[in-house]
Amino acid sequence: MKKYELINALVDKTKVNKKDVESVIDAFEEVTTKTIKGGDEVVLTGFGTFSARRRKGRIGVNPRNPSEQIDIPSVVVPKFKAGKNLKDALKKDESTMSSSAEAQE
Tens digits of per-residue pLDDT, 11-69? Predict the structure, then answer.
């Protein structure tokens, strides 16, 4: 689902006008980004937690020259940890997904 599809789905679900939904989504993105850049987490209880983690630097292999090693620096990356309600919802749908996948084969 792309951003515009999410906006349209929320408009249909909430009956709020499209411009307001779009501004809420944009504000959510902005606030979440600012918060995790500051080292804090954004917790949506039951849905999940947005945070930032530092990935340690390491030695890698140059894909253009496999015999050459390159230094990959440490970097801060976004992280999302699913909450219990989201996990449970996916577990319930797992049986439906697997049976529909089997039906397609």
Answer: 999 999 999 999 999 999 999 999 999 999 999 999 999 999 999 999 999 999 999 99
CATH class of 41-90: few secondary structures
Domain boundaries, the chain: 1-38, 41-90
Task: Read off the pLDDT of residues 67-96 as tens digits, 9 standing for 90 and up.
Answer: 999 999 999 999 999 999 999 999 987 766
Decide: 54 and 75 in contact? Cβ < 8 Å: yes
Q: Specify the pTM.
A: 0.72
Q: Do 8 and 23 contact (CB within 8 A), yes or no?
A: no
For tokens 């140059």, the residue is: 62
- For residue 68, the Cα-to-chain-centroid distance in whole angstroms is 34
The C-alpha angle with vertex 86 and arms to 11 and 37, in degrees rounded to 5, equals 80
- Asked whether the beta carbons of 59 and 17 are under 8 A apart, the reply is no
Distance separating alpha carbons of residues 86 and 93, to the nearest angstrom = 11
